[in-house]
Amino acid sequence: ANYGPNPICKGCLSCSKDNGCIRCQHKLFFFLRREGMRQYGECLHSCPSGYYGLRTPDMNRCSRCRIENCDSCFSRDFCTKCKTGFYSHRGRCFRGCPAGFAALEELMECVEGCEVGQWSEWGTCSRNNKTCGFKWGLETRTRQIVKKPAKDTIPCPTIAESRRCKMAMRHCPGGEWRRPAKTKDKKKKKKNLMERAQKQHSIFLATDKTSQ
């Protein structure tokens, strides 16, 4: 029903031509809309985005959500739906989920993620299951999964990682350290030098005979 000569007075118990609704019917929420310098009251069945309904003995009102990036809230301090691009977590809105929680994209919520323990110490530097005989090797460290995620689709962080390391013993005890590739290169180089020396020696002998 309309109360007063203006459509803006719909649902009002009392209404002003300039300010709209002043009091609302039972169960309706009083919402104070602002447009530039002007403000006027409306009586609504539900509060608009960014507001929540606060029921009081005097009059039901639409109060603004005080949570940043909240689209709709249950109370002043608990958001039920965040704005686009934000994840909901315990009544708050986040660009990214807090540590220990994973993003559930279909619902734009943060759920309990995979929990892992502390990293172990780095292991022994080795290569080809040997701890000597090479200049460089790899060392590895690991960590355990303490708590599995709530959803199977949420991946756990890596639980093992390796890095390059320098061998503590380049030469194995009782043996000589060699690099096969470089040894072959040295032998080939030495052979080429010998061949060149022999060739130059042959040329020298031939030239010497001619001069005689």
TrEMBL record:
Q: Does the keyword Transferase apply?
A: no
Domain R-spondin Fu-CRD span(s) in chain numbering:
9-110
* Protein's cellular compartments: Secreted
UniProt lists the family membership as follows: Belongs to the R-spondin family.
Does Disulfide bond appear among the keywords?
A: yes
Gene Ontology CC terms: extracellular region
| Molecular functions (GO terms) | heparin binding
Q: Which gene encodes it?
A: Rspo2
InterPro entries the UniProt entry points to: Furin_repeat (IPR006212), Growth_fac_rcpt_cys_sf (IPR009030), R-spondin (IPR051514), Rspo_Fu-CRD_dom (IPR043601), TSP1_rpt (IPR000884), TSP1_rpt_sf (IPR036383)
Name of the protein this chain belongs to: R-spondin-2
